[in-house]
Write a structure and sequence with these properties.
Layout (H helix, E strand, L loop, with lengths): L8 E5 L5 E7 L4 E7 L14 E3 L7 E3 L3 E3 L8 E3 L9 E9 L6 E6 L2 H10 L5 E8 L2 E7 L6 E3 L5 E7 L8
Parallel strand pairs: 4-12
Antiparallel strand pairs: 1-2, 2-3, 4-5, 6-7, 8-12, 8-13, 9-11, 10-11, 10-13
Length: 173
């Protein structure tokens, strides 16, 4: 990339998953940071699986209730405290969320939130769901069956994401 002043710039993904632009200063013969995204939550999958990014909390990466950090590095994501049991699982609700990536998502028409929850509960592979009302009396039920990645928390807007957890893990994480 060349700027209008003839300087050469390059874009890189930094170690924290933040985009950075470096500009070459020939008089100093070095690359200097000239711009970066100051919101690390901007980066895709910044926090790893079962973790969400929030620029409004002291810790950028936060494990979902019922999950614990995999390693000391928060960017590696989180793991379940207790395996899903299928028959007795509950849901924890994350409000105002950017929904996880949709590679393992399935959409279907649903009458309401309760119908969507029941549909997720009977499928032992279902890890989370959300209900998006689109027409009076109907909406879309979106369910996920794989690991939940690329989530972000907003102060307002977004969707309520209901994540499946073991009943013993309510309040853990």
């Amino acid at each position: 990339m060349t700027t209008n002043h003839g300087n050469i710039s390059r874009l890189r993904l930094g170690p924290e998953g933040v985009y950075e632009v470096y500009t070459w200063f020939s008089e100093h013969r070095e690359w200097k940071l000239s711009w970066s995204v100051n919101d690390s939550c901007f980066s895709s999958s910044h926090c790893g699986s079962y973790s969400f990014c929030s620029k409004y909390t002291a810790r950028r990466c936060n494990c979902i209730e019922g999950f614990t950090q995999k390693l000391d590095n928060r960017l590696t994501g989180c793991a379940r405290v207790t395996k899903m049991s299928c028959n007795q699982d509950k849901f924890t609700t994350l409000p105002n969320m950017k929904l996880p990536n949709d590679s393992d998502a399935y959409e279907r028409w649903s009458s309401d939130l309760q119908d969507c929850e029941e549909n997720c509960l009977i499928n032992c592979q279902c890890t989370a769901y959300t209900f998006v009302e689109s027409r009076k009396g109907q909406g879309k039920c979106v369910t996920w069956s794989g690991e939940l990645e690329d989530m972000r928390n907003y102060t307002s807007g977004g969707h309520d994401l209901h994540v499946r957890i073991a009943p013993t893990d309510h309040g853990v994480g």
